Amino acid sequence: MRIAAILIDTGRELLFRKTIVVYFGVVTLVLLFFALALRTDVADGVISTLSVAGLEASGSRGAFRLGGAPAGAGLGGLTAEDFVRYVQLGAAFTLYPLAILMSIFATASLVPRMLEKGTIDLLLSKPIGRPALFASRYLGGLLVATLNLLYLTCGLGSILALKTGVWNGGFVWSGLVMSLYFACLLAFVVLVGVWLRSTTVSVMITAVLFFASLIVRWPHGNRDWPLLISGRFARFTAVGMVESLYHALPRTYDFVQSAVALIRHEGGLQWGAVLGSALSGTVALGLAVVHFSRRDF
């Protein structure tokens, strides 16, 4: 019950700062756009006409484009199932990064604000241990981000199902996968927050970690790249840094690949990447809890 009270208090704080309102408002606008702007006519699983915000679509070889097509141009036998997957893959590459970015902005201030004089004194006066208190703040931020991603995936999936008659459950699962990725990333956000007590620095360092995880993925997947470095010591140092960063950070690229595979129904999760990222996130969260528990306020 005490942890639930902290979770509710975290939600109230986000609501008071209008974070939740803006967060879910943006997703609502996106869903309204698809609901009002998308027009389809489906016959026997094949889309005969398609328009988005008044722009007529044309296509060939299973792909489609909006506007700029000759009058009467068809859709080249574009099936409703392919169309739904195209839209959802586009959402995965555009809306998911935006949702993760908004999640970071929405939750990065939770720990620094908790550590402010007066707020931390009030929280520590409650009959709850420091680890449970810190974990509750973390879970509160994670819950908001997860609900937002589920709102996006379930809402968009339902709209496309109504418009085309095709429901792709893999899209919803991909949203849960990205929620797991954010859980790993949020652990580093709260670690920086409790260590440096700065919202701005937390966002900046998290952005650096995000791009660093993408950069080191390439050399990790190409075993011949150390041959580009002539010196033995320099090569050993570079390989050590790349592999250390790859295994220590949430694996952004692999999570995106897993989300795409679920949408396409072309395989499941990359469990090595998921478990490795979960381990790195757990270590970061554990370090944050230990630092918070031992710090004097």
- Quick one: overall form? flat
Global Rg: 23 Å
| Domains, number | 1
Strand order of the biggest β-sheet: 1-2-3-4
Keyphrases for this structure?
297 residues; alpha+beta; four-stranded antiparallel β-sheet; 8% strand
Provide structural commentary.
With 297 residues, the protein is an alpha+beta fold. The chain has one domain (80-294). 72% of the residues lie in helices and 8% in strands. It is built from eleven helices and four strands. It has a four-stranded antiparallel β-sheet with strand order 1-2-3-4. Helix 2 runs parallel beside helix 6 (130-164) and helix 6 runs antiparallel to helix 7 (169-196). The longest helix has 35 residues, at 130-164. It is flat and about 65 Å long. It starts with a helix and ends with a helix. The mean pLDDT is 84.
Short description:
This protein has 297 residues and is α+β, with helices and mostly antiparallel strands. It is built from eleven helices and four strands. 72% of the residues lie in helices and 8% in strands.
Give me the secondary-structure topology.
Layout: H1 2-16, H2 19-37, E1 38-43, E2 46-52, E3 55-60, E4 63-66, H3 80-107, H4 110-114, H5 119-124, H6 130-164, H7 169-196, H8 199-221, H9 232-248, H10 252-264, H11 271-294
Antiparallel strand pairs: 1-2, 2-3, 3-4
